[in-house]
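Retry 2 of 3 after timeout on previous attempt. Resubmitting structure tokens to design endpoint.
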């Protein structure tokens, strides 16, 4: 009813402004919290959570035990709820909102779902109010009333929505669930009879999870590349430690050490008293999101230069774990004639891009300026190198030069252009003191005159 009418009945009614954005954010956090039951969870509209528990229920002793654990934890957090488990999203949605209550979940057997849906109102098919009102006008008030109706008759009178929603609820049409985040490759979980808050307990839990995960990876000949360690706290918050490795790894001690190094970056532990549990943790889940093949290796003495590089991977992982994934980078290459586009920085844990095919190019400097720095130059003929230029207030007289090497914009890429000022003529020049520069002229001779820049320095 309108607020004014409600206040007339209850003058002392406590009210608060609605916060839809905060409600949606809270629902997303609750969906993340539900990862303890399955990695496939997602918010459902503005008041529900979808969980795909196929293959997960047996870990809790069955569907009834899983729903009981879920209800108990939600009650402990003061969250009102109705739980339903069914073979389709449509059936679960209908049963949760129109059959279950806060004390009795809806758990029909697979062969009883059609019967369980029959007495529910047609609104349980997730229909819009206008369509539901139209069904009521012709006497179709319950889902069971639609079972015997011809599909083409329903489609002609009410459109495809009614038949489509009915078929989704009955499993005739598929309805996939898009998870809240990236789907994991593997995950291992550790639950505690009593919540833990001691850092030493966290370290032991991490070691146990790493051992369990590595055992599975060894059987598959794979190595870990990106991992996520989630701590499910008693207050409903979920804290994450995310990291990547420079190279595939299935060394449990190395992975456990990387994760333990970042324990001080998450809010877990705390007082842990019975009155104020703080950040006490009841579940820890280690999730693997990316792997690479890693065949068995025979360590030994070798002069292979690649082995020396591989031996740096654990050190790089530890630095990245301590300083952040963006603190350690490597230079990658891509196919481009534009000097500043031909290379890029990437975190060491990122997968390397496909190597660009070798292209014969004139010598390039070991140091590039980003962006190129403007200079004042004097030159004679249109295609001749400068005879004198001033850079950073210092004058340089050119004694030797080589060029030009013309490089135009890549007009086929986004932002590319064929304009005259996008054409560069590069020169390798050496001044009277023996210093070597990479200069270019931007634009073609004419009006306005071209501009000169220094783009790099040769060793």
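Retry 2 succeeded. Sequence:
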């Amino acid at each position: 009813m309108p607020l004014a009418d409600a206040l007339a009945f209850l003058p002392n009614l406590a009210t608060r402004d609605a916060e839809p954005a905060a409600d949606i954010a809270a629902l997303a956090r609750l969906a993340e919290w539900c990862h303890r039951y399955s990695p496939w969870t997602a918010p459902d509209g503005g008041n529900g959570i979808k969980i795909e528990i196929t293959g997960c229920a047996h870990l809790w002793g069955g569907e009834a035990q899983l729903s009981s654990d879920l209800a108990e934890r939600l009650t402990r957090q003061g969250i009102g709820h109705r739980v339903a488990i069914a073979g389709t999203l449509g059936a679960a949605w209908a049963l949760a909102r129109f059959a279950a209550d806060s004390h009795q979940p809806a758990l029909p057997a697979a062969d009883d779902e059609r019967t369980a849906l029959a007495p529910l109102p047609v609104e349980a098919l997730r229909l819009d109010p206008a369509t539901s009102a139209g069904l009521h006008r012709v006497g179709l008030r319950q889902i069971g009333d639609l079972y015997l109706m011809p599909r083409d008759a329903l489609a002609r009178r009410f459109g495809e929505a009614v038949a489509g929603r009915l078929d989704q609820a009955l499993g005739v049409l598929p309805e996939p669930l898009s998870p809240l985040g990236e789907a994991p490759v593997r995950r291992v979980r550790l639950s505690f009879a009593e919540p833990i808050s001691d850092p030493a307990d966290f370290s032991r839990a991490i070691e146990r999870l790493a051992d369990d995960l590595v055992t599975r990876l060894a059987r598959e000949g794979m190595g870990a590349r990106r991992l996520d360690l989630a701590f499910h706290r008693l207050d409903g918050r979920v804290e994450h430690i995310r990291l990547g490795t420079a190279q595939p790894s299935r060394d449990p001690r190395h992975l456990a050490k990387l994760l333990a190094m970042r324990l001080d970056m998450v809010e877990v532990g705390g007082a842990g008293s019975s009155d104020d549990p703080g950040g006490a943790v009841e579940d820890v889940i280690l999730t693997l999101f990316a792997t690479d093949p890693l065949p068995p290796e025979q360590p030994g003495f070798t002069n292979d230069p690649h082995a020396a590089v591989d031996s740096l991977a654990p050190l790089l992982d530890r630095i990245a774990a301590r300083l952040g994934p963006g603190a350690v980078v490597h230079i990658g290459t891509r196919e481009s004639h534009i000097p500043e586009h031909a290379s890029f920085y990437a975190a060491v844990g990122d997968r390397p891009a496909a190597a660009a095919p070798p292209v014969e190019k004139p010598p390039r400097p070991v140091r590039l300026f980003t962006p190129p720095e403007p200079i004042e130059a004097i030159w004679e003929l249109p295609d001749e190198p400068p005879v004198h230029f001033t850079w950073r207030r210092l004058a340089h007289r050119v004694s030797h030069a080589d060029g030009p090497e013309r490089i135009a914009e890549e007009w086929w890429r986004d932002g590319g252009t064929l304009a005259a000022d996008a054409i560069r003529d590069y020169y390798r020049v050496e001044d009277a003191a023996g210093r070597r520069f990479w200069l270019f002229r931007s634009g073609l001779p004419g009006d306005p005159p071209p501009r000169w820049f220094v783009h790099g320095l040769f060793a």
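Attempt log closed. The radius of gyration is 33 Å.
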